[in-house]
Amino acid sequence: MRSKPKWLFPVLALVPVLGLYACLRVYPIAETLRLSLFKWNIISRRKPFVGLDNFVELMSDPLFLEAIFNTTVVAFGVLVITIPVGLALAALINGRQGLRRSGFYETSIFLPHVVSLVPAAMAWKWIFDARLGPLNAFIGWFGIPAQSWLFDPVLSIVCLIVLCSWQSIGYAVLIFLVGLKNVPEALYEAARLDGASPFQAFRYVAIPLLKPVMLYVSVITLISSYNIYAQAFVLASDVQGAPGHLVRVLVLDMLENSFRNYRVGYAAAEAVVLLVIVLVLTGAQFRLFRDRSRA
Amino acid sequence: MAFIATSVGTFGYPTPPRKKRLSLLSAARWLAVAVALPMLASPASAEKLTIWSGWPDLAPFYKRVGDQLKAKYPDLEISVEAIALREHEKRLALSLPSGAAGDVIEMEVEAARYLEAGLIPEPPASIVDFVKANYDMTRVKTATYDGKIYGVPLFQGQGALFYNTDMFAKAGLNSPPKTMAEYTAYAQKLVQRDASGAPTVSGWSLRLSGGGSGIAEKYWTILYNFGGTLLEEKGGKWRAAYANEAGRNALKQYLDNVVSYRTVSPEMKADAEAFELGQTAMFIRESWVIGDVAKKAPTLKYATAPLPKGTLMVPVDLYVPNKGPKSQIAWDFVQKANEPENLLWLLENTAWVPNRKGLDYSAILGKIPQLGAFVNTPADHVFFTVPAISPASEILTRLAARLEKAFTDKSLAGNDAAIDAFLKSAAEESDKILAREDLLAK
Questions:
Q1: CB-based contact (8 Å) between A238 and chain B?
Q2: What residues contact A129, with CB distance under 8 A and at least 6 apart?
Q3: Which of A266, B16, B227, B316 gives 20 to 30 Å between its CA and that of B260?
């Protein structure tokens, strides 16, 4: 009697997971790629093939170009704030491990990440309110005139970056803390014997060892920032038409094209562009971190 | 005996006793019966009718209609799913093609797409006769496709001026503005400022920001009252009609108020909220504000007035998207909703204006005089609507994105040539969208 091949069980065990992955991940991506080559209004059976026309139109669409610019500014703004601030906060918390209230600091920094997005955005909307918001009251103490945070095209992007960073820093801190706890104590000890200050030990021992963690956090932060939607929507919306300046971001533009303008093929083309941008940036980050670690 | 009780296997060997398996099977059977019992207990004739609305404030109205329909269908269960309009539009787009929509649905002009795609069945002849007998056919346009009526009008959104009578009296103004030029002159008299000259109470709250097509719709209303329109029809096709003097005057009015005279600023509270808080003296809005003020600012002293020439009117129609045994109940619901008694309740309790002809509003007007500007409009007052063409929403949304920037653009203030260039570029974009859909008039 022939024995069953050794690979059979692992393959069979993986089949359900791979099947689910194919259905829930691969198929929608493939379908989006296919749809981007068609003109389709979501309700019609007619779905003419238009080749790359949707992509050609995108390149001269001012709303799409504005959306891609805004999204990129917000994504890199969040990245630039989240990584250093998250790392610094993680280092401070790590330095207080075992002391009183260290758990409190960890929890309070992580809390924004788990708070429901819409109420959080509503709270920030109040903070940024030009007339009644505490932010303008605060800057008023320093003689700075009140700002139209949610109405000025530039300031409204800054507000969005602040809101998204506030939410993402907690997660970054948590991951950095895990990384910092895994740095062997012996390395710090050796640095100390060599005369390194605590900051030098952190800079030259911990940070190089945290590069894989930094890569992970930066990739996750960038991808999630390119996918922002609800934050921009809530900051600019109001049931009674007393809204703010709508920061047009890519996902918002896609939704508008799909369900307001009924241009699903066109929105799919936008999704493909977003996919390419995220893939390229992720690849660039991998390359950047890998090259540096080799050097 | 034990041997007899044991069954014999395929090859003559006795199989193990099935006691355990049998008990599992019987447990499963009991479980199935337990699950099925509640279903068997409910009457066989029970029906559930789902109503999909894009106006949460209409939920009590539909529940009331559903309760009345129980006289005819005692076991009828009504489920009213009223959500925000934009979300409602999304669920229609996702559910109508798959036949999974509610039993009765509301639609505005976007119905044109679904009618064109054959996703809405024709109503029974009795419903068509009902519509023809009770509605002005100009208000049934959005529910008509290829000469056939598919839906029943329920109510309409239409604009009028809301003004704070205390603020008007304080500014020495005894009557509402009658021309668009007067609107700006009034706003200058009504605005209240702080020591630095910044407006604290806007003279005229204009829609200056926010996403979606609302900005363009409000601009269209002002444009119309300057003698223009956004889109004009020629031989069944359309073209942009706002790159002209009327379009320039409408945009100049925004720029005058925001940039030149600063009677309003984008960061101020706006719209109904500002009106209810006493932070604006006047604004243009639909009749629902009356119901909102009654709830949120019941002591506010205000009046309403029709706009100088006409207003954008957005009819909301009811459709039954599914064929089948329930469709008759659904059409009964639609007809019940349109009974005069219910329509008057709708007006009195939500302030939405019914579409049906021949309703006697006198008793309600005695209680809520502000409704007069909506139901007793002058004979020459024009109601125009968004054309029932598929790219209408995209045209408005894209124009809105441009207008939002233009309203605060100081380089446009007092510069007719720059305003004309802006309007020309925007109109070209509108025409491009129409051309893409083969709807551009030559």
A1: yes
A2: A136, A149, A150
A3: B227
